[in-house]
Amino acid sequence: MRVLVLGATGYLGGHTAEHLRARPGVRVLGAGRAPGPSPAPGPAGEPAAGLAVDLAAVPVPELAALLADLRPDAVVNCAGAVGGDAVALTGANARGPAALCAALREAAPRARLVHLGSAAEYGPGEPGRPLAEAHPARPVGLYGAAKLAGTLAVTGSGLDAVVLRVFNPVGPGAPPASLPGRLAAELRRTAPDGVVRVGDLSAHRDFVDVRDVARAAADAALAPGPLPPVLNIAGGRARPVRDIARTLARAAGFRGRIDEEGAGSSRSAAVAWQRADIAAALEALGWRPRRTLEESLADLWEETAGAREGAPR
């Protein structure tokens, strides 16, 4: 089975491609905004992996021609943007999925499409009440609105498609722009009895290990038969964001002070509490999270140690 992973050079896409490669009988074709290394040469006549594809800008006919050449049985779209200006956010998160659906309808209409959405599409949750897939989507910012537009493009495409609405991924490879990645880097740079300054950490979020997200994406790509249009992928538990800082500090042996200065991000301030109902993913895919937040952060911390040791001096 041939599975094309878009965004394969990114955080979620990299884990998803790695997970799919471990599945028997799966040939992974990777593509990202910048070409990545091909994991292994395919049989004679197969197109190369490590392709450069920017869904925010590629013309639909060009993308359709590429898909016709690749002949994927499934496409997992992990491409997107979490930061940048309005053009970057809407291009990657709204225009990209719409262009992909148009190209798939033309070139590979029978391919399964798995698109990674975001919990930001829901907007604020009500404490004590988990968010199920039927909950109204009420994003509070441009990022969530752009992700919702991408979801609507996918669910209205007429394709064999499913949106995995991913909550807060954490674990090895967390990018520096994310709170876990930034905190791990700060703790590496700070003396054990020093001070780390962060924004407000009082919000509650539903965290899920990035490797569990990758497993869900692989399960959805390979599942027989139709799937529900949207599935929540999350840990199923609301945790204070402050737990991220405290758990990483324990892993680091940090004895200093974590100061919550300032208001933090406006997105966090507007969405104080979120928790997912993940029953539908269990029913449709047999999927449930396997790793705890503590395991995810311990693995992130260990990975940053290896990255530091391997850095040039």
Automatic annotation (TrEMBL):
Gene3D superfamilies to which the protein is assigned, alphabetical: NAD(P)-binding Rossmann-like Domain (3.40.50.720)
According to the record, the signal peptide region is: none
One Pfam family this chain carries? Epimerase
Give residue ranges for domain NAD-dependent epimerase/dehydratase. 3-233
InterPro entries from the entry?
Epimerase_deHydtase (IPR001509), NAD(P)-bd_dom_sf (IPR036291)
- Domain of life the protein comes from: Bacteria
Please report which protein family the annotation says this sequence is part of.
Belongs to the NAD(P)-dependent epimerase/dehydratase family.
Q: What is this protein called?
A: NAD-dependent epimerase/dehydratase family protein
